[in-house]
Write a structure and sequence with these properties.
Layout (H helix, E strand, L loop, with lengths): L1 E6 L2 E6 L8 E4 L2 H4 L16 E2 L10 E2 L4 E2 L10 H4 L8 H8 L3 H11 L1 H11 L6 H11 L5 H9 L8 H25 L4 E2 L2 E2 L1 H5 L1 H22 L4 H25 L4 H27 L3 H28 L2 H4 L5 H4 L5 H9 L4 H7 L9 H13 L2 H20 L6 H14 L4
Parallel strand pairs: 1-4
Antiparallel strand pairs: 1-2, 2-3, 5-6, 7-8
Helix pairs in contact: 3-4, 4-20, 5-8, 6-10, 7-8, 7-12, 7-20, 8-10, 8-11, 8-12, 11-12, 12-13, 13-19, 16-19, 19-20
Length: about 425
């Protein structure tokens, strides 16, 4: 078993064959230093654990079946202070593992890399409250989701040198509160019966209570912002909420009229999806101590990531595997939502309007199977699906250009990996 430890900026490899044997010390090969992971281990990695900070000796180490570990380090916060210069900024093994993994496994690797921070965020999200509304909102929070927006914030908060871990955790909880508030409200608007594999709050408690629970989450977010006290935090959150509301109203108008305006739809997904990514990355940039120009680049990165993320969602609704997405194909159309590929089909071939109108606002199980198949085939044959895929790639390229202007750090590499993960996901 091996453990790599940085002691006073000098890397050493300590080896012993069993807990009862004495340890021997030697230099760490430079190629091994790229194989960084503070957690359960990356497939193919040569080192079981990278740790450090105040270590003067790696022993005694706690013996486990997988690795020799000291006090759990998990998150990068526990090691970055001392290994930021020694660990290459390109996470070669991490990237390789992500490339060979499913989307779920890739996100799990990111979670492991940030495990302590994510645990801290979860603790904040589930702080005991006496409010009745928490009983309604808690099942949705407990169902989890991917915690994508907190992950983005936590990674971005490490782009600079001024990071406050406490601020990062609190602002990550703020973003997740706001996100889940929108989900509670969306489920009422869409009359949704299930989310994340569980009955929605509106099914369990009713529409009225579900709306109030969403309002309660927004209040929780605002209280947390007030307690942190940073002057930039409240204006950014209010801007985000304002954009969310405007986008919801615009989407409702488009749904009622089945308007084939892709420009309006892009405004909807910018307000509903990209706005929350912008908030997360805005907070992360402030916490990292980035300057105004760097924060602007980060915001532009977030916009492109958010739009690509949503268009990938649009594609999954049309060509995804329902066993992985957790919802049947054409669920968006059943709710009256015209996604980007459908809008492009209408623009290029208006003769499909009667077919689309006959399927919209109709439960998926009540749709005519022949009509649904005809629509899906038309989307493929018309090039609408390929156009959506091309747009995703364009947005990704733009996103990567934006983060190239940011400090060349481990965190920047992780953001690049996250963009690929989020738009290659299958659920």
């Amino acid at each position: 078993m091996r453990a790599a430890v940085q002691v006073q900026s000098s890397w050493q490899i300590w080896t012993r064959s069993s807990p009862s044997q004495p340890a021997t010390k030697g230099p760490v090969p430079s190629t091994w230093r790229a194989r960084f992971h503070a957690g359960d281990g990356i497939p193919g990695a040569n080192l079981d654990l990278v740790t450090g900070r105040t270590a003067t000796t790696p022993w005694p180490l706690r013996w486990t079946e997988k690795a020799l570990t000291t006090t759990p380090v998990g998150a990068l916060a526990a090691v970055e202070d001392t290994v930021s210069e020694a660990v290459p900024t390109r996470l070669e093994d991490f990237a390789r593992a992500v490339g060979n993994s499913s989307q779920a496994e890739g996100l799990a690797l990111l979670r492991r890399w940030l495990s302590e921070d994510l645990s801290g965020v979860e603790s904040l999200l589930f702080e005991p409250q006496t409010d009745r509304a928490q009983t309604v909102a808690q099942p949705l929070l407990a169902a989890g989701g991917k915690r994508i927006r907190p992950l983005c914030l936590l990674v971005a908060s490490r782009l600079g040198q001024q990071r406050s871990r406490e601020d990062a955790l609190q602002m990550a909880a703020v973003v997740e509160y706001i996100h889940n508030a929108t989900l509670l409200h969306d489920d009422v608007v869409d009359l949704a019966d299930e989310r994340r594999g569980q009955p929605t709050a509106r099914v369990t408690f009713g529409n009225t209570v579900s709306v109030f629970a969403g309002d309660w989450l927004l209040v929780r977010a605002l209280r947390l912002i007030h307690s942190v006290g940073h002057p930039w935090a409240l204006p950014a959150a209010l801007d985000c909420i304002d954009q969310l509301i405007e986008a919801e109203i615009l989407q409702a108008e488009l749904s009622q009229n089945l308007t084939e305006c892709s420009a309006s739809y892009l405004k909807v997904i910018d307000g509903k999806t990209a706005s929350l990514f912008r908030l997360a990355l805005c907070y992360g940039g402030h916490i990292a101590g980035l300057d105004e120009e760097q924060r602007d680049q980060l915001t532009r990165f977030a916009t492109n990531l958010g739009l690509a993320f949503q268009v990938q969602d649009d594609l999954l609704d049309l060509v995804g595997d329902p066993r992985q997405t957790g919802k049947p194909l054409l669920s968006d159309l059943a709710e009256g939502k015209l996604t980007l590929p459908v809008l492009w089909l209408l623009r290029e071939q208006p003769t499909y309007r009667p077919l689309i109108q006959s399927l919209a606002h109709r439960p998926v199980e009540a749709m005519d199977p022949e009509k649904t198949q005809a629509l899906l085939e038309a989307l493929e044959a018309s090039g609408a699906l390929e156009s959506a895929r091309s747009m995703i790639q364009d947005r990704l390229e733009e996103a990567h250009e934006r983060i190239d202007a940011l400090p060349d750090t481990l965190a920047r590499s992780a953001l690049g990996l996250m963009t690929r993960l989020l738009v290659e996901r299958v659920s």
